[in-house]
Amino acid sequence: MAPVNFDKHIKDKLEDRKLTPSVNAWDKLSERLEANEKKKHVNLYWWCGVAASIVGVLFVVSQLVGNKQEIIEPQVVKNPKVNDIEVLEQKPLYSSDQKQTQEEVVTTPKTEIKIKDESPVKSVGPILNKIPVVVSENIKSSKTIKPEQQLKEALTFEEQKIQEVVAQVKELKEQKTQVTDAEIEELLQKAQREIVFTKRHNESNTIVDANKLLQEVETDLDKSFRTKVFEALKASYGTVKTAVANRNN
Amino acid sequence: MKVIQLHKNESALIKRAVKNNREAQHVLFELHAPKMLSVCRYYLKNVQHAEEAMLNGFFKVFSNLKSYKSEGSFEGWVRRIMVRESISMLRKQKKIELPFDEIDIKNEHTNSINTDIEVAEIQQHIDALPEGYKLVFVMYAIEGYKHYEIAEILNISLGTSKSQLFKARKMLQERIRKSNKTTSYGTS
User: Fold this and answer.
1) What is the pLDDT of residues A208-247, one digit of tens each?
2) A120-to-A128, A130, A133 alpha-carbon distances in Å
3) How many Å from the N-terminal Cα to the C-terminal Cα in chain A?
4) pTM passes above 0.80
5) What residues contact A130, with CB distance under 8 A and at least 6 apart?
6) Chain A environment of B111 (Cβ under 8 Å)
7) Predicted complex: ipTM over 0.85
8) Residue A121: what are its φ and ψ, rounded to 5°?
9) How far apart, in whole angstroms, are the C-alpha atoms of residue A161 and residue A79?
10) For chain B, what percent of residues have pLDDT higher than 90?
11) Cβ(A164)–Cβ(A105) under 8 Å?
12) Testing the interface with B: which of A5, A13, A20 to mutate, by most B Cβ within 10 A?
């Protein structure tokens, strides 16, 4: 035998060899390949889902940001001139009794309390009758009233009601020796209803003014109507007391 | 003509196999599986382990078929994958032991052997070698890898690759010579 290169000889011998795989070799491989392809499809769908959800989130966020920007933009609105407020002519708001009382109050001439020049006071009642009642004639006429004036009118009306109640209490005192709390309470509630009714009527016929609203809030914060009545009574009693004391002196 | 036709057929099969055509993949498997099993058998003594490595190799072949760019032969590309899968299996079994020793191989002589030795006997002698010797010998002598390629794949030095090859050759020659003497004594 001719000597042959060792490595080449072994290589030549082994290179020609072929070994037959087992019968189910391809089946095993095929199953692995199919499982791998399914995995790839699932991953692909998963990534598609992730991408779609990201796109959806971005879309929603962009919409929200867009809406917020719309809201943030300052709205330039020309407010209508509220300077001149038309107040319609007041219709009769009160019952016949109250109306009569109001007329009586309205017709009472404007007088000032002059303590020294006044005639001797026999009782508290008559003096109290002379307490000036400010009547706002403008309320009755249909004129264009400025908001400041209207506020003054509203306050004046309330004060007017206070004075009415005081006057009614005095009248009751003149008629009777004692005035019960229930009667005073009734008078107070009536006056409150009238004030509320008047306010609502004015609100329905007027253009709302921001300044007016603020004033109303401030008014609400002030002392209640009842307290005002009591204080008016107290003040008037104090005035009368002073007048009597000075007279005696 | 037959070679050209076979090449054309194989190219068409590969194109279809890239699209996950199972029939095309089956044909390619049937064409190359016997050879590739033999290649895996160089490295792994157990035939079942060799078949497992072969199937792993084909799984990677069909999963990454798009990366085959037709620059070399398809069989050569598949073969390289089989070698790496076989080495990977040896690593899993923790059988690769490559001592870091380098010997002077300047005086190495190439010895000749009796050509009547059977393939099965050669395989038997190769199987008897230590894993490190066998790996380097098979990769160099049979697969045709260069020492620097072997060093890179096995993560060893160039000197270690050369020394391992020297020792493998020496041991194989001794074994074959002894086997031939035994055979000649038997026949005589």
Assistant:
1) 567 767 776 666 655 566 677 777 777 776 666 676 677 7
2) 13, 14, 22
3) 168
4) no
5) A111, A113, A118
6) 6
7) no
8) -95, 125
9) 34
10) 64
11) yes
12) A13
